[in-house]
């Protein structure tokens, strides 16, 4: 389906279709069809531009589904159709037509059909727009609650109370525009929820500007919610006012602001001594991140965010709140030079895609050696396996980090200078607990990498210790791809990556199961569909839950909008997008390209995934015990390949293949 000529160069239309592609690639064609029908059925250009503008703002500020966008585009034309259901059935596939038509009917709930004057028609249109945005906003709130629960906080009463109060206050103050502002607040709260912040902080993020934009006072929050949330909201207002006093603006375009250094130090001291002010800073940092993400994406008449708002970056750096400081600095750099930022981002993503198999194999080798086969490695080098516990995490860089590393490596930076030699592909954080055993593990790591039988199959080319006490090894594989292995305790890793304290409540990754039943988690796919998986399930299990062919062809994934490894374990409430490689045999038939390896079976936990992998391996592999061909200590020789073969034999009869 192609766009009509009138819309082909429209930037707002391009943004709408880009958003839909992130949500569901299959439904992009339906939105294109709706856009074409909008042009066909609308008598005036003004109506077409207004509908596209409304849908564009909704796509930028909210998380709509295809039925929401189609309803926003076509509800004015829908009012003029004699038989709208028949029209929808003629335009869309039968199953989708009913779904989209029902979405349209829901938008007309409580809307008067009697609109004769232009003023009445405008009010009716505004009410329908409000209904569509209201249901999208409610869906965003449900996603916020799922995220909070997925991080282990089961009691979300604070958030529900805050949401109801905000809905009521904004409806009185802003009328039918309130849903966009609600979506803005939910997006800020979601940033905090994704970082595992406590429910009190997430609830405060929903209410942090109530006294500024509405008539609601601290006393109202105290009465309608509770004193704790009221004190958090008051601390957020206090922080904003205190920072505003020392944050002076100038007429110099190159240096638009300057800070009173004495006032800044006083404020830093106050925040260090007050937990509520620190929580308030997290909220202001999340708000700044969302403002910068919206920057240059909204039409100039949109009144949602203050893109020129206070820059909390100096305060965050002073307090070493590294995650928020890093993201804000990256987004501010994007705002200063969007085209160069996009070129660097695209080049790094291309680099990751080209070397995805090497990244996956590196992660697998680390897990095989130090996580799944700790006993064998320790025994081989005379260490006590009970002395420490090891976990491995992958970290991919922000675009500004890529730029800075390339600049340090090769000097003048252009996108073409970013390659496997100028920047590492990613970091692998090797977390060792307890902290006092980090030094012992580092010795084991060096021995296992430099011995005759190199467990990681990679060479150490450089070594340093950073300001956070992490031991950093620069490693290269046979293809000269560079990685950074960062060995540290959990505390030092968190201090470097995040810089703020962890939630005080324990994180529980699954629901309490009924008596005698296995614990399960719920994860959500690109289209919003929920699937239930057992505790311990990884990204691959989710891929095979969609379809066996999708699982076999999986080459990458994102979890909660962050790149993820195929073996990463999922948590309750996670949002998973699977990248499976496909190609078209002809114009109509699509086929999947398998990326499966025999070692996958070690990481998956669901029967469906294990049987699909075993079946494919039975049909395509001649399995051999590679470890028998190498002279290594017995304990080390019992590698992940052996474990994979043993597991496969338990699922499928492999005797005939040996």
What does this structure look like?
The chain is α+β, with helices and mostly antiparallel strands and 658 residues long. Among the domains are: 1-150, no CATH class; 338-491, Beta Polymerase, domain 2; 520-657, Beta-grasp domain (Ubiquitin-like (UB roll)). It is 55% helix and 11% strand. The protein has a 5-stranded mixed beta sheet. The chain is globular, with a radius of gyration of 27 Å.
Count of helical regions: 29
Question: Can you identify the CATH superfamily of the domain at 338-491?
Answer: Beta Polymerase, domain 2
CATH first level of the domain at 338-491: which class?
Answer: Alpha Beta
Distance between the terminal alpha carbons, to the nearest Å? 51 Å
What's the architecture of the domain at 338-491 in CATH terms? 2-Layer Sandwich
Task: Label the overall shape.
Answer: globular
The helix fraction, in percent, is: 40-55%
**What is the β-strand count?**
14
User: Strand order, biggest sheet?
Assistant: 3-4-7-6-5
* Category from helices, strands and their pairing: alpha+beta
Beta-strand content estimate: 5-15%
Cα-atom radius of gyration: 27 Å
Give the key terms.
658 residues; alpha+beta; Beta Polymerase, domain 2; Ubiquitin-like (UB roll); 14 strands
Secondary-structure topology with pairs:
Blueprint: H1 11-23, H2 28-41, H3 45-61, H4 66-78, H5 84-91, H6 94-107, H7 118-150, H8 157-174, H9 178-194, H10 199-207, H11 210-213, H12 218-224, H13 227-246, E1 247-249, E2 257-259, H14 261-272, H15 275-294, H16 313-318, H17 322-336, H18 338-354, H19 356-371, H20 374-380, E3 389-395, H21 399-410, E4 427-433, H22 438-450, E5 459-465, E6 471-476, E7 482-488, H23 490-497, E8 520-524, E9 530-534, H24 539-546, H25 548-552, E10 554-559, E11 562-564, E12 576-580, E13 582-584, E14 590-592, H26 600-603, H27 607-620, H28 634-637, H29 640-651
